[in-house]
Amino acid sequence: MSDQVNVDASSGSGFYKMMMGFFASYGFLPVILVFLYLGFGLVEPVFLTGANAQNIIEQASYLIVLATAQMFVLLTRGFDLSLGVVVSVVSVASAMVMVSIAPEGEGPVILALTAGIFTALVVGATAGGINGICVAYFGINPFVVTLGMQGIAFGLATTISGGFPVFGLPDTLINTLGQGATWFGFLSPPVGVCIIILLLSHFVLNYTVFGRSIYLLGSNPRAAEVGGLPWRRHNMMAYVLCSTIAAIGAILITARTGTGEPSTGGGLVLLSIAAAVAGGVSLRGGEGRVIHVVFGGLLVSVLSVGMNLARIDSFLQQVVLGFVVVGAVFLDRLRLRIRL
After folding, report:
1. Which alpha helices (H) appear in 102-208, and where do they start and end?
2. Is the pTM here over 0.85, yes or no?
3. How far apart are CA 231 and CA 224, in angstroms?
4. CA dist 185 to 3, 51, 171, 182, 188, Å?
5. What's 2-339's CATH class?
6. Residue 37 and residue 102: Cα distance in Å, rounded?
7. CA distance 326 to 340
8. With contact defined as beta carbons under 8 Å apart, do 167 and 270 qualify?
9. How do residues 234-253 score in pLDDT, each as one tens digit?
10. Mind listing the pLDDT tens digit for each residue in 285-322?
């Protein structure tokens, strides 16, 4: 009898340790996601349909790309408040280049697409480079630098576009990367691009010197400096990667809307930080993985789609999102306590 009790106790203890290990690694978010999904399904049965699941995944893919960009600077104990307006200025600049070369798709379309995408990447990398140099080499607080860049990028986006959307994009862009297009007959382009970015980010963070050094830089800046790592360059490159990945997201958003929008990135900063932090990327730096960003992006998208189907007021949705950010920080600290 006592042996049976001991076996039950040890198995219970093993299950407890397994659950604590799971929560320490992934947080409470996977469980919350399941409950949210089922809860919205009870309110609106259409939420549980396959078509809606596909819609959630497609919407989440845009946000996951931007949250992945934000993750690189969060790992260094920074953040990028300019990400949203960088998306706007990239959208406008790339659209204007494409329209100037092939208006309404009349002209060398491939050249227009190539030039537009190249412009997007250059604009994104330049914005990230300026942010990174100011933070890493001049020691300016990331909040001040990226807030300043936010104003600069917003001014540029509205000035060069006149404050109006840029129309006349080539149909090839929309048919290749826009909503409704498919790759290989089944894969949505935003989802495909998101998967590629996630795989490359996972490789960079886990199998390169740069990736390991930004983890060290975030968790122990002094050790990174004493260890002889080129931490300033790596810190700068984190901001360059952030804005470059955001530029890729801007191309996807431009293809979805079919226009270059100077206001398209308005609320994307809060969403990208919320998705990354809610997923488990620490605001203290040095902690976070690609899988965390995926969970966070899915959470925000499930909430957004669920609240829309439940006909919750859009302003109230912003309140809910704010609580999600605060709750994510609380769960982040709770997860740290479980580890300790």
Report:
1. 109-136, 142-161, 171-177, 189-207
2. yes
3. 6
4. 58, 16, 19, 5, 9
5. mainly alpha
6. 44
7. 22
8. no
9. 999 999 999 999 999 999 99
10. 888 899 989 999 999 899 889 898 888 888 888 888 77
